[in-house]
Design goal:
By secondary structure, the protein is α+β, with helices and mostly antiparallel strands. The chain is built from six helices and eight strands.
């Protein structure tokens, strides 16, 4: 959906039939409200906060709607005797963890083999390292990782990692209108950035956007109507 259609549809949601009551809403306000709405929509869908209680990859619909946000990032960093620590965490784009994958090799097995990596709680690291069933084990092809301080630690035990990779959900791209002030940078955008989601998803996000703006201008009837429409169709 292009930005001109987006603006037209948003004003249709806010204005009463054949009126132009809310045509004075600034373009930068539309940008801010839409970007906020799409980020909140993604978070709700990932956590199953919708009519069908379907979260991350729990149905074909969720897979289809959110797959474009999945990103693979080869991890770089340094290793100690205890763990590998990444140095290139995607701070600006990261939204939610999906998985960590890696190969590993040891002195007795120089050919790299696949490892299963579980996400663990930082508070339980020492417990996991003492537990013979949970600690890193090259023979069983299992280890665990933690996240702290925008870094990922993958724990080691007599093996080294090969090609560790983080798979994560990134934030959706923020829309921009050419020639309009970008409320996040304070600069005027030189080109349009259109929504990256499919049109049917953009329609849902537009309802959430209209609800946000309607709440800001205390138009509670429109806010309830658009919220209800978005909730029914997610």
């Amino acid at each position: 959906m292009n930005n001109e259609t987006l603006r037209l549809k948003l004003k249709q949601r806010l204005n009463k039939l054949a009126s132009n009551d809310y045509d004075n809403i600034e373009n930068w306000q539309i940008i801010e409200a839409f970007n906020k709405a799409q980020l909140e929509w993604v978070r709700r869908m990932l956590h199953g906060n919708n009519l069908y209680k379907e979260g991350d990859e729990l149905s074909k619909r969720r897979i289809d709607d959110l797959q474009l946000l999945l990103v693979e990032l080869p991890l770089t960093g340094s290793s100690t005797d205890k763990y590998f620590e990444s140095s290139n965490f995607p701070v600006n784009t990261y939204l939610e963890y999906k998985k960590v994958t890696t190969l590993a090799k040891s002195e007795c097995c120089p050919d790299a083999r696949s490892m299963t990596v579980y996400l663990a709680e930082e508070a339980n690291v020492e417990l996991y390292l003492r537990d013979p069933l949970k600690r890193p084990d090259f023979e069983w092809g299992e280890t665990f990782c933690t996240m702290l301080g925008n870094k990922i630690r993958i724990y080691l035990r007599d093996f080294t990692l090969v090609k560790p990779t983080l798979t994560y959900y990134r934030k959706p791209l923020y829309i921009e209108f050419a020639g309009v002030l970008n409320p996040y940078t304070g600069l005027t955008s030189t080109a349009d950035v259109t929504p990256e989601f499919k049109d049917d998803v953009v329609e849902l996000i537009l309802d959430d956007t209209a609800a946000l703006i309607a709440g800001d201008i205390e138009n509670f009837n429109q806010m309830q109507r658009t919220q209800g429409s978005a909730d029914r169709n997610n």
